[in-house]
Amino acid sequence: PATPVMPPKVAAAALTALQKQVLGMPAVAQVMQVERDQGFVVVNAGKNKKFVKGQKFDVRRGDGVVGRVSISEAIEETESVADIDSTVVLPGARIEPGDELILPVTR
Description:
Blueprint: H1 17-24, E1 29-35, E2 40-43, E3 56-61, E4 64-75, E5 80-84, E6 100-102
Antiparallel strand pairs: 1-2, 1-6, 2-5, 3-4, 3-6, 4-5
């Protein structure tokens, strides 16, 4: 019998271009609190980071994006409320405290 041909092994650690881009982005803020029922998060940056209402950020955990938020009008000096964009939630992913805000990644 012929020996089955095995597909070449692919390095599991290889990051995609998108993952490298996500990892390379500097975090602009961190999620402090998640109010899932009301659909918003509290982040640890505000006027000190020149946040403005309607500004959009991707939410990063590790080398992946787990969602997107947009800054609401509640902007304090070092804290803001951001609405969770329900159209950009990845299946099975939930924004959690400790996740980082990065500028939106171009896909």
